[in-house]
Amino acid sequence: MRIPMNTYERFQKMKIDFACLGIQQLEHYENYYCTPKDAVILGSAGVDGIHYCTIPEFGEMVFAVNPMDFGDCVHPIARNFEDLLRLLLSCADMAVLEQCYAWDEEEYKAWLIDCPATREQAQALAAIQSEFGLEPMEDAFSYVKQLQREFDLSKIPYTEDFYDIDMNPAAPKPAPEWKVTFRGDFHSADQQGTPGIPVRTNKEFHWAGIDWVIPEVYACEEGIVVLTLGKIDPAKVRKYMTGEPKTQEEIERMDAECPLNIHLRCAAKINGSNGVYCGGSGMVWMPPMPGEGNGYDDARWVLEHYGFDTNYAWIINRDNYRWPSGIRPELNSLEITITQRPVSLSGTHFKTPVDGNVVKVQHPLSGKIYTLTIEDLKNEEADMRNVQGMGLEFPTKYTQMEYRIEPELASRQYRIMDCKQSDEPRPMKITRAEGPAEVQINGEAAAIGIIGGADGPTAVFVGRPNRKTSQLRMASSSMRFEHVDEVEWRIVFLEKLHEDITIQVI
């Protein structure tokens, strides 16, 4: 049976103190810098300024406001007060609903297990159930999460206090004038040239597991500017944001798997002819976590300009193309082809020296087996005299491996790398009358990366006469101060994970 619209008034008149449930009724409520404009306060948590309200623009929807979560203060928690009471019957504490936006399901369930309803809470909940005849929400967590996924937080109206940096250190900066030029960026600051004429397209497509949109292109005197945005569930990204990758292999794996690192490149046909690519830029947006502020302003301004939901993660790509003829024509058609750049996929590890000098390695995706025959393995030392300086000593010793691979692969399809990084440069020891001493730079030992880094000493070239076949390949280990008896290698395949796609934009 539908409960009348006066549910909240009936709740107010109940002669029960609901402070044990995390909601207090006060005669006077103090507005905070983050209290939405014209909000109707329903109750207070009684701690940290947390309060609950409705906002006229969103009808009966109930919001939680936490002034301590700078930059991420307001979230919807129930579609109406009736649903709020059903949620309370399910979880027994308003604090759960207020914090739910920052939790995953495991954290939510852990709270329910660790903090069961007290006797006082059980009595208050029984009174609510008796008064309204309500049943607990069957899946409270999913209810709240779905509501928050569907709601655009950027639509919440605030007072001027919210944008006052003195009152709100995480206050979002107001967007500058929107002005897209061929040589500039998305906004008016440091722009060069005349703004392009916007051509609304709103072209939507699906590629690489991501929903994309080309909202507009801009026809400038020099050429055309194309904006491409990809929308991603932030949960698919956050798992790659916990912890720091410790090895080059872990960095490559994250780079290949994280949806924000799609590594796309675009080509354009303008009025049937190839546009001349003149560079581009890109950025990403991640919805801030509690206490993280408002994220990257530039990305947020782009999303707000087009009215896109900032609760999602976004890839924002901008590409510039000169007119094929060099003269601005009437724009009759535009075709965009999107390609993924190859990513690094680590395959089999192996150590040298190898018994029999033959190693089997496997492609991580196809499972195809390749045979490496090691022809030569020797310790070498690079001449690093030209890079000495700043009181630093650089590692010079490495292992060189010559090998053949069958079936044969082009050099652009793979590489063989040392699993360990090169040794860091170290302060050079000099001899003084009183004995050895370390040269220090500004009181601290300096660190300078070696050209090539994890790929080995790519700046070191070892000339050899041609062998009996061009199939003979060479790999170099990382640089070390001392030669090692054993090197652990890995084969890395360079692959595109997604097929090209062509979009008829106009």
Fill in the keyword field for this structure:
alpha+beta; 506 residues; 24 strands; disordered N terminus; Immunoglobulin-like; five-stranded antiparallel beta sheet; four-stranded antiparallel beta sheet; single chain
Molecular structure report:
The structure is a single chain. The chain folds into three domains: 157 residues, no CATH class; 145 residues, Sandwich (Immunoglobulin-like), CATH 2.60.40; 151 residues, no CATH class. It contains nine helices and 24 strands. The strands form seven sheets. Strands 5-6-7-11-10 form a five-stranded antiparallel sheet. Strands 1-2-3-4 form a four-stranded antiparallel sheet. A four-stranded antiparallel sheet has the order 9-8-12-24, with no helix packed on it. A hairpin with a 2-residue loop joins strand 5 and strand 6. It is globular, with a radius of gyration of 31 Å. The N terminus is likely disordered.
Kindly summarize this structure in a few lines.
This protein is α+β, with helices and mostly antiparallel strands and 506 residues long. Helix content is 16%, strand content 31%.
Main beta-sheet strand count, sense and barrel state:
5 strands, antiparallel
Output mean pLDDT.
85
Q: In angstroms, what is the radius of gyration? A: 31 Å
Order of neighbouring strands in the sheet with most strands:
5-6-7-11-10
* Alpha-carbon distance between the two ends: 52 Å
Number of E-type strands: 24
Low-confidence stretches are: 1-5, 435-470
Number of domains: 3
C-alpha geometry: globular
Number of helices: 9
Report the portion of residues in β strands: 25-35%
Structural class: alpha+beta
Helix content: 10-25%
